[in-house]
Design goal:
By secondary structure, the protein is α+β, with helices and mostly antiparallel strands. The chain has six helices and six strands; from the N terminus they run H-H-H-H-E-H-E-E-E-E-H-E. The longest helix has 13 residues.
């Protein structure tokens, strides 16, 4: 799925948008079924938040479950973990072609972005609120001063596992 121009439909669908884009990039058959990205975001939001209030966004386990449903055909499931200083697993995943959702915020976690590339210590992050890709130095994530992704502090990542 072409990233540029895909945007979340409201202030609560960043997680579903990230899950949709990641899933579409992993599963071309799924991507071919997305005629209306806005409607698909809302469908995913309902599916990922069966007991979690949608006004509170999407949980890491909800994002992981949505992406896993498309990655399983590739022999992979996604799981989540709290952000740590060692991002070797994130770098390895992205460099192997696996998109990695990242939950960011300021005081509390509140926005999802999608890490889609890495080069020379800089992640390329798709931000669904702008529909653009921002370069985020890994050092800026460590220092909780990321720019271009809406909020400076990383909280959690959603990673593939074999």
């Amino acid at each position: 799925m072409e990233l540029q121009g895909v945007r979340q439909t409201d202030g609560f669908t960043c997680g579903p948008t990230v899950a949709m884009v990641a899933s579409a990039n992993l599963d071309p058959a799924y991507a071919a079924t997305i005629d209306d990205p806005a409607a698909e975001q809302h469908r995913i939001h309902r599916a990922a938040n069966r007991i979690w209030p949608r006004k509170l966004g999407t949980t890491p386990w909800g994002v992981a479950a949505v992406i896993s449903s498309h990655a399983e055909a590739l022999g992979t499931r996604y799981g989540w973990k709290l952000f740590r200083q060692d991002l070797g697993d994130v770098v390895a995943a992205v460099e192997s072609g696996w998109p990695v959702p990242l939950l960011v915020g300021r005081i509390v976690p509140r926005h999802w972005v999608l890490i889609v590339g890495h080069a020379d210590g800089v992640f390329q992050c798709f931000n669904p609120s702008s529909g653009r890709i921002a370069d985020v130095p890994i050092e800026a994530l460590h220092d909780k001063r990321a720019q271009g992704v809406g909020f400076p502090r990383p909280y959690a990542v959603v990673l593939p596992s074999a």
